[in-house]
Write a structure and sequence with these properties.
Pfam families: EVE (PF01878). It comes from Uliginosibacterium aquaticum. InterPro entries: 5hmC_binding (IPR052181), EVE_domain (IPR002740), PUA-like_sf (IPR015947), THYN1-like_EVE (IPR047197). The chain has 155 residues and is an alpha+beta fold. It has one domain: ph1033 like domains (ph1033 like fold, Roll), CATH 3.10.590.10. Helix content is 23%, strand content 28%. The strands form two sheets. The protein has a six-stranded mixed β-sheet with strand order 2-7-4-3-1-8. The chain has a two-stranded antiparallel ribbon with strand order 5-6. The chain binds a DNA duplex (12 and 12 nucleotides) through loops.
Length: 155
DNA sequence: GCCAACGTTGGC
DNA sequence: GCCAACGTTGGC
């Protein structure tokens, strides 16, 4: 079982939005980066846990925990011309983009990005590397444990 | 709104 | 296969 960090713009889907979904589950659609797609396709498995990170917002940081709830399967939005994630170059016979389902696990008091940066134990986190823009990144077990034990408080 | 970093595209 | 142009990300 692995650990992840998944970015979401709260205007789009916040941790509260996830908690309010039917089954508290959402298809993690819209990933249009090959590295992030490959993480979902090759390494994510149901039961994996992920920090739910709020990005591109006034208070960026970890807002909760989610659980991977499915294997990767074709992302429906790539075939929907009305979607902003529509990809005219992707054909149903050979879908280019995949997504997993993600289920709400728990909400945390926001752990701000600046707080994460303060801790030497987290210095190697992918999220914290210069210009790291990947929307899905692996989290080392030690990093996961450190954040849970030291910084995480239920909200 | 700015801007640096990075990924993707497409002409050659 | 190179590489310049362009688009996107995301913190500030």
């Amino acid at each position: 079982m692995r650990y992840w960090l998944m970015k979401s713009e709260p205007d789009d889907c916040s941790i509260d939005d996830l908690a309010a979904m039917p089954q508290q589950t959402v298809a993690w659609h819209g990933v249009r980066n090959y590295q992030a797609r490959n993480f979902m396709r090759d390494s994510m498995r149901p039961g994996d846990l992920a920090f739910f990170y709020h990005s591109s917002c006034p208070r960026p940081g970890i807002a909760g925990i989610a659980q991977v709830a499915s294997l990767a399967y074709p992302d429906a939005s790539q075939f929907d011309p009305a979607s902003r994630f529509f990809d005219p170059k992707s054909v149903p016979e050979q879908p280019r983009w995949l997504n997993v389902d993600v289920r709400f696990e728990r909400k945390l008091e926001l752990i701000p990005l600046l707080e994460l940066r303060r801790h030497a134990a987290l210095a190697k986190m992918r999220l914290l590397q210069p210009a790291s823009r990947l929307s899905i990144t692996p989290v080392a077990p030690e990093e996961w444990q450190f954040i849970l034990a030291t910084l995480a408080r239920d909200a």
